[in-house]
Amino acid sequence: MTTWSHIARRIRVPLGFVFAALYLWLAHPMWLSIAIGGSIAFAGVAVRAVASGHISKNSQLTMSGPYAYTRNPLYLGSIVIAAGFAVAARSGWIVLALGVLFVAIYIPVIRSEEAFLRSRFPQFEAYARAVPRLLPRFRNPSATAGSFSRELYRQHREYNALFGTAAMLAALAARLLWAGR
Fold first, then answer.
1. Is residue 11 within 8 Å of 109, Cβ to Cβ?
2. Which of 64, 78, 88, 147 has the most C-beta neighbours closer than 10 Å?
3. Domain ranges in the chain?
4. 158 φ/ψ angles, rounded to the nearest 5 degrees
5. What is the pTM of this model?
6. String of DSSP letters for 116-127
7. Within 10 Å of residue 32's Cβ, how many Cβ atoms?
8. CB 108 within 8 A of CB 8
9. pLDDT tens digits, the chain, 181 residues: what are they?
């Protein structure tokens, strides 16, 4: 039986491309909003980059680096990127759409991934009790720094988040330049 979380996992990336087109249509950027929103978005890209350099997907439960403070730093980074795009776009419709996407897509995906981790790693329960799901708790006495791996970063192709963010901000700037003619 196909569940919504399974469907959400499969459609989240293609849906992102559809949303990008809608985003560019609904956006009302200004140079200042692009600068502020871009700064926020690139902070989210940095969170994702650091997280991707720590995670060995499906082979071990990652509890070091940013995973010592939040169980989902990749999704946290995505939320920060989305917040940056919302600021850059200056559109209430975009904020609403991002909220709907988060609730309809990311919450079910996070829950599904956590169910998988529970079934695969016996230590997940203790980890889940000690580390919050999304919003980081920076005071974790059992936190370990771990080490960032450039190889993992490249393996996960996380540089695509950097390129995608830069491309969307460039598209906003192009739209602003074109509208100014």
1. no
2. 88
3. 4-179
4. -70, -20
5. 0.88
6. HHHHH-TTHHHH
7. 11
8. yes
9. 678 877 877 787 788 788 888 999 999 999 999 999 999 999 999 999 999 999 888 788 998 889 999 999 999 999 999 999 999 999 999 999 999 989 998 899 999 999 999 999 999 999 999 999 999 988 766 666 678 888 888 888 999 999 999 999 999 999 999 887 4
